[in-house]
Design goal:
Blueprint lengths: L1 H14 L4 H16 L6 H18 L5 H22 L3
Length: about 90
């Protein structure tokens, strides 16, 4: 339930002007490429991309443009590590 609400929030931000909409549009495709290094299927890449955006929304971080990429790389590594830990061995 909580995830659905957060995802609804992410969709709302995508559609409405605001601080998260431009960030989402700017980083959507690059995040997919970053995550493709860690995930094999398009569905897993999409799930991980949404997880990164959810974490950014929950953290409510406002970063200067020059700090976005390094911070997102760290979040991507965190999401990938979490997925690897929870994956069946």
């Amino acid at each position: 339930m909580a995830r659905a609400c957060l995802m609804g929030t992410a969709m709302k931000h995508e559609e409405e002007p605001g601080p998260f909409g431009p960030f989402y549009r700017r980083w959507r495709a690059p995040l997919g490429r970053m995550l493709a290094r860690y995930f094999k299927t398009p569905a897993d890449i999409e799930d991980a991309t949404q997880e990164v955006f959810v974490r950014m929304l929950v953290a409510d971080k406002r970063l200067p443009a020059d700090e976005e990429r390094p911070y997102l790389h760290q979040v991507v590594r965190s999401v990938a590590a979490f997925a690897q830990r929870k994956a069946p061995q």
